Amino acid sequence: MKLSHALIALGLLTATPALGDQPLKVVASFSILGDIVANVGGDRIALTTLVGPDGDAHVFQPSPADAKAVAGADLVIVNGLGFEGWIERLTEASGYKGPVVVASKGITPREMAGEDEGHEEHAGHDDHGDHDHDHGNVDPHAWQDIGNVLAYVDTIAAALEAADPADRDAYAANAAAYKAKLAALDARVKAAIGALPAERRKIITSHDAFGYFAAAYGLTVLAPQGVSTESEASAKGVAQLIRQIKQEKAPAVFLENITDPRLIEQIAKETGARIGGTLYSDALSGATGPASTYIAMFEHNLAALAEALGA
Ligand SMILES: [Zn+2]
């Protein structure tokens, strides 16, 4: 009698605070978004990131462990704009019934229609009902403009607050502190790129991941591969790009952490442009690498650009 009373009392004592303190289970689709979500969620969430450091979300193949993480999640957060072509199949297969938050909601997407040969290839695939191409030629890499990420933070904070109202003050405070850091970073990037000689603000990367960056900070970016790594660069496209690099005297070509370096190395060799280092486009580095957070990624990319394009 006394023992059972003691057990009940113990059960109540341990169960009640555990319920209140249980972190919200959040799944983010890829490493860059995961870091942004972690900054807003802080210690109130338990975060799982699907596509990890140096991973390519364009061609990601979810594992059974990913389906399990999604099945157990309270909230799933994706970039949207067609970046995660696999997310619908994954949420369906896992039986997840909760909200899927699109972090890029409300930003102005960069439309690619009619700009290059890749457009025709996409149209061909659409005839076969390939659902990976549902989103046409919208550029998904909106996180390369810090202004867009300020909007991501608001969307993520609103979603966390709705899913976990008890912690809404913490999410709002985290979001405000993070947005202040991002705004300061944005000003640094604008000043540093603005200080480069205008005629040298031209870069070449393998896939077209820096269109938002170029538009926001005043650079020209050329890329032999389209906005997705799914399609290969055509021989004709590469030859055209090599002519363009020579004509415009683009000072540097850049490797990306998620793409095969060989195409860019070939272009460097044929044009005489120097390789200006590695830019982090679609994924962070590992924890000990130079781009382990979104802010560190931007600082790293900015330093590489300033070094290669400076007078
Ligand atoms: Zn990409």
UniProtKB/TrEMBL annotation:
One of its GO terms (molecular function) is metal ion binding. Keywords: Metal-binding, Signal, Transport. Residues 1-20 form the signal peptide. GO terms for biological process: cell adhesion; metal ion transport. Its main location: other. Residues 119-138 have a biased composition (Basic and acidic residues). Coiled coil: none annotated. Pfam families: ZnuA. Gene3D superfamilies: Nitrogenase molybdenum iron protein domain. InterPro entries: AdhesinB, Bact_metal-bind_prot9, Lipoprotein_PsaA-like, ZnuA-like. Residues 111-139 are annotated as: Disordered. One of its GO terms (cellular component) is cell envelope. It comes from the Bacteria. It is found in: Cell envelope. Belongs to the bacterial solute-binding protein 9 family. This is ABC transporter substrate-binding protein.
